[in-house]
Backbone:
C-alpha cells in the first residue's frame, strides 16, 4: 500500500536518509555465555560508509565489493544476498541503509546474511542480536525474523525471540491511525543441540523493509546451551527492558498479519 504520491517518493527517500541518521538508538548487551564461546561484533561505526569505502551509495542496488567482516571476536562476515525493489542495502553515513525510492509500506528492501565458516567445535547454541530502525512501523519485510541455515543448506530454522528492546522515536500516520515508531534491538537464539551432524558453517539471513536502517549486530555462539533465557528477564529489568517488549511485538505482528490478510481480500 502506498501513502505517498509517486512524484514525492524520491524526495521522501532522500529525506529519510538524513532524518533517521540523526535518531538515537538502543544498544546491544553482553550475553556472557558459558562453555567454549565466540563473539563477533559489528558496531554502528563498522557499518558506515566511512568505514567501508568503495561500496555503492543510494539507492543501494550496486554490488558490494566484498563482505563486511566483524571488527571484534571471530571471523564472521556480513554480506548482501539480494537487492530489494528498486534499491538495496548499502553502508550509509551511520548505518546499513535499505535504500530505494518507494513510498510503499512494507516494501522489500533487500536481504543480508551473517555467515561463519569457522564456528566453535560442537556448536550447540547461537544467539544473534540485531539493532534495526523501523520505516513506517516495519523493520523486517513481512515481519519475518532472521532464520538460521547450516552446512551449506537452506533449512531456515525459526528463531526464538528472547527479548525486544524498543527505543521510541515518535509517531507516524498509518492507515490504521497514529502508530509509534521505534528502533528495535532483537535478541534471537537457536538451540542446535538436537542436530547430530557437526555444524561446520552457518548463516543467518534476514530481509529488511525499504528505508529501514541496520545499526549494529552481535553474534554469540557456544558449545553449551544456557539453562535459562539469554538474556535473563531479571537482569534486563535493571536496564528497563524485559518481557514487555515480547508481548508487544507479538501483538503488533498479529495485527499487521490481520491487516495484510484483510487488504488481500478487498
Residues:
Amino acid at each position: 500500500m502506498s501513502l505517498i504520491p509517486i512524484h514525492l517518493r524520491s524526495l521522501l527517500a532522500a529525506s529519510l536518509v538524513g532524518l533517521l541518521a540523526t535518531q538515537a538508538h538502543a544498544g546491544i548487551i553482553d550475553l556472557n555465555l558459558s562453555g567454549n564461546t565466540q563473539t563477533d561484533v559489528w558496531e554502528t561505526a563498522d557499518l558506515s560508509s566511512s568505514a567501508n569505502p568503495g561500496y555503492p551509495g543510494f539507492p543501494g542496488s550496486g554490488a558490494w565489493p566484498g563482505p563486511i567482516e566483524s571488527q571484534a571476536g571471530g571471523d564472521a562476515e556480513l554480506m548482501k544476498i539480494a537487492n530489494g525493489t528498486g534499491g538495496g542495502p548499502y553502508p550509509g553515513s551511520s548505518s546499513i541503509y535499505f535504500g530505494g525510492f518507494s513510498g510503499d509500506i512494507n516494501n522489500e528492501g533487500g536481504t543480508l546474511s551473517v555467515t561463519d565458516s569457522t564456528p566453535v567445535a560442537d556448536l550447540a547454541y547461537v544467539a544473534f542480536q540485531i539493532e534495526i530502525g523501523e520505516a513506517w512501523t516495519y523493520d523486517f519485510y513481512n515481519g519475518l525474523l532472521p532464520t538460521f541455515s547450516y552446512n551449506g543448506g537452506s533449512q531456515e530454522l525459526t528463531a526464538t525471540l528472547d527479548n525486544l528492546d524498543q527505543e521510541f522515536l515518535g509517531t507516524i500516520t498509518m492507515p490504521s491511525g497514529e502508530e509509534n515508531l521505534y528502533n528495535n534491538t532483537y535478541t534471537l537464539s537457536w538451540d542446535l543441540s538436537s542436530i547430530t551432524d557437526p555444524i561446520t558453517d552457518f548463516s543467518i539471513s534476514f530481509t529488511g523493509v525499504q528505508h529501514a536502517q541496520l545499526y549494529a549486530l552481535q553474534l554469540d555462539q557456544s558449545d553449551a546451551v544456557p539453562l535459562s533465557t539469554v538474556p535473563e528477564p531479571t537482569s534486563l529489568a535493571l536496564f528497563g527492558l524485559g518481557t514487555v517488549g515480547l508481548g508487544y511485538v507479538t501483538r503488533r505482528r498479529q495485527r499487521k498479519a490481520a491487516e495484510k490478510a484483510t487488504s488481500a481480500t478487498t
Observations:
- DSSP finds three helices and 14 strands in the chain.
- Helices lie at 6-21, 233-237, 244-264.
- The chain has one domain: 6-264.
